[in-house]
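Why do we care about 3D structure at all? Because function follows from shape, and shape follows, mostly, from sequence. That is the central idea of this module. The next example makes it concrete: a single protein chain, its amino acid sequence, and then its structure expressed as tokens.
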Amino acid sequence: MTDETLRRAADAAMLPIVTSLAPAGVIGAHWLPDRAGDPVVWIRVHNEASRVAVESYSWVLPQVQVILSRLGLPPEKVLALRLEVTSAEAEDHLFDD
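And the structure:
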């Protein structure tokens, strides 16, 4: 799988990831490759309480992995996936004094 094919598959997965996780409070998602080229998916929620809740749900990572595998990511990339959760609330406080 080429880097371009990997990028397209991961990009295509972001909307289905947000849609499927919206009931859990997810409002956005993006991905970046790590140093090894494995995807790191960042999902975003409204506040810190939601972040803690989403991080505690054991089904979130498998849900993201299923979506990525259905859209063509190879199994070794799906298994190497790292999932990070951030909140709009924490982002707003990032640059506060």
